[in-house]
Specification:
By secondary structure, the protein is α/β, with parallel strands linked by helices. Helix content is 41%, strand content 12%. The chain folds into two domains: 3-152, no CATH class; 163-281, Endonuclease, Chain A (3-Layer(aba) Sandwich), CATH 3.40.960.10. It has helices at residues 3-25, 36-43, 85-92, 98-107, 120-136, 146-152, 163-174, 216-231, 247-265, and strands spanning 33-34, 73-76, 80-83, 181-187, 194-201, 206-210, 235-239. This is DUF559 domain-containing protein. InterPro entries: Restrct_endonuc-II-like (IPR011335). It comes from Bifidobacterium criceti.
Length: 292
Amino acid sequence: MTESLLWNDLSNTQTAMIARCAERQQALRVRPTFCRVTALGLLAVECPKITTMAEHHRIQGMHDVMWSGYVQRTVIAGKVMCTTAECTWVMMAPLLSDAELVVLGDNMMRRDPQLKRTTKDQMEQYLDFLTEWAREQEGGKRIKGLARCKRLCTLPAEDTDSSMETRLRLVLMVYGLGEPVVNLKVVDPDTGAVMYLDLSYPGVRIAIEYEGAHHAVRWANDAQRRRRLEYMGWEVIQMTAADMGTVERQRALAMLVAERIGVRIGRKVRICERMAVRDLTDGRRMRKHRDW
């Protein structure tokens, strides 16, 4: 989904959610603070995949949510109040896998200014504040989701464009290929045209591009873009949602990227046994590839 289409979709969801929440709060004596999935709708943030284990937490309608942390709030359209992006990220943690928690973090820090809701610094500052706040409460407070967010907070990346690109980035990392650069800016020396690569390993000039469901004009533009990149010495590996459909397909994709890196550097590159996403925060488990 392109940035403009995604913004239109999320903007429509936001408008409908504002109206729904405004109507709901009229029946309440106390102004509520909307949170979790409802807050994502109000903030116009793309919702990640809710895990099967957390299906019983799915919001069918609206209901009270009890949370032991400090609630950071913001007002939307001057009408309704919801948790901030940073607070929502922590509150959503119990509903998400580690990978989807990283996806949500990326979704909140998009490259499109219309979709950017926070920064990495702001997220880390809130986590630090929440940790100190919990420590100062009588007897100390255990805030569900905080520990996971603190462990994973180094993994979300700023200025991404799509959740599928985030999932692809994580797949390459869990198979030991190192972290690719997100949205690298490349300038065509002949035309001056600016191109942004979804994911790339600049040291070996390999780009990995996610191909969504585009119409004919977009496909033609992408083909021309690919030809220009190849002329500039880049190798472009295209992938689709089908390549991410199963663990086996994800492994095959990682093997393809490793094989192409190997061709570029003149030696065989092997992927590792699939790591857990949380292991990516452990420097001892991460393979260092200085060649790329």
